[in-house]
Amino acid sequence: MDPVNNLYEVYSKNTKTSCEFMEKAKTVMPEGVTANIKSFAPHPIVMEKGHGAYLTDLDGNKYVDYLLSYGALMLGHGHPEIIEAITAQLHSDGTALFGTPHRLEVEMAQKVQEHYPSMELVRYTNSGTEATLLALRLAYSYTGKYKIAKFEGHYHGGYDQVLLSVNPPVNEAGPVNEPNAIIESKGVDPYHQEHTIILPFNNIEACADILTKYKDEVAAVVLEPIQGGFIPAEQSFMDGLRKLTEELGILLIFDEVKTGFRLGLGGAQSVYNIKPDLTALGKVVGGGFPVGIIGGKKEILMVSAPTSASDVFDNSQSKQSAAKDVLFHSGTYNGHPTILTAGLKTIEVLELEIDQVMETTDELKKGIEALFTAKGIAMKAVGKGTIFNVVLTEKEEILNYRDLQQSDFVTRKIIDFHLLNHGIYTKPLNRYSLSTVHGKKEIDLTLEAYENVLSKL
To answer: From 401's CA, which of 214, 227, 349, 429 has a CA 20 to 30 Å away?
Structure first.
């Protein structure tokens, strides 16, 4: 196969205008991006248009899109039913934003509860990050305990309590059964290394030892039921974790930002038949717009009910802070009517079409695996539902972060850049997400590109 430098040369030639534009972007944004995850060497591709399952860049190159904004666009780009719905909402409501309660808040909550009955009450936020942040605050408030436990390799947003041991160097990560808490960013207070306990995924015995030790301090265990959207929890692990947290008086929080409406309409909790105490949703439920939803047991959510005061600025009922006994949660754009309209329409379409997306995903996974097998290259398409990742490994199973780190990232990255040069888009090393508009044509194009690329190995 071509050396990496030559591969980058071809890539840079194909995306020359993107390269030039990124230099301009660097004059107004750090490294030219407004989110670190959007940056990669030698330069990211700057997109100009999205339509259906495709993206077109500044140079006019067209790609089958498997990034789909990290899984958010489950109806693809510019779905006509979403455009029609939000246009009608703007006309009928006469505004994009009320700043007051409105009917769509209730309609969306009821629709979510149809598929996630564990979410007895809900609150809206502006991102999945905000949803998990509020989940932790609810857990602290409800339990009166102020440590949390998260799993090594799991991502829950970019804030201090959870920005630990997401992608830690294995040589610093500590024992596999009792991982160290490794800070993932400058600016994170080391305090959180003592207040965020790191657990090993898919190892219930080790989790039991750690959580029993900290049971009087840990408010909640938060996890991605499918790590990174593609490494599934084992059923026995999920059953054991639910039982363990209940016995120890620790809340269980499912971060279903990636998996919500992607493993089926009811997400991971329906697949595993587990009822978490709190659930965070995002991505798909925004229909391409920024959103988060947090929901769970009524008695936990009621901690945020403004029964004694409407907000922290209202001190009319007390000489002290009127909100001191209420968990504060607010936001100008929470429950944005246009966003909820897009989310509702997305769910309605998925109620009719999600089975087809699952079948298409399975077809693509099997096709890629067959091509690797024919070349004698060890590889697994790891994932459930409508998300998977291509993992180059000889291991029988990928159960956790440590297993994943033993895979061949170098060859995978080379393959990804070749695929970009052949019009197949995902960020190098990232997972594949599919949508309702990925069909036979897109699968055939993808498998043809893979066959071409693998012939060069």
So the answer is: 214
β partners of residue 197 = 149
pTM: 0.96
Query: SS3 for 433?
Result: strand
- Among residues 264, 280, 288, the alpha carbon closest in space to that of 345 is found at 288
State the fold for domain 97-312+320-335. Aspartate Aminotransferase; domain 2 (3.40.640)
Question: Could you please report the per-residue DSSP string of 297-348?
Answer: -HHHHGGG--SS-SSTT--TT-SS-TTTTS-----TTTT-HHHHHHHHHHHH
pLDDT tens for each residue of 262-294: 999 999 999 999 999 999 999 999 999 999 999
**pLDDT 10s digits, 140-159:** 999 999 999 999 999 999 99
Q: Could you list the active site residues?
A: 155, 255, 283
Domain boundaries, the chain: 14-78+355-455, 97-312+320-335
Q: What is the distance between the alpha carbons of residues 179 and 390, in angstroms, rounded to a whole number?
A: 26
* SS3 state of residue 29: coil
The two three-digit tokens of residue 450, written as one number:
């893979």
Q: What is the mean pLDDT of residues 214-226?
A: 99
Q: Give the tens place of pLDDT for each residue, 351-378.
A: 999 999 999 999 999 999 999 999 999 9
- Helix-, strand-, coil-residue percentages of the chain, each rounded to 5: 40, 15, 45
CATH of domain 14-78+355-455: 3.90.1150.10
Length of the chain: 457
CA distances from 263 to 73, 110, 211 (A): 14, 20, 28
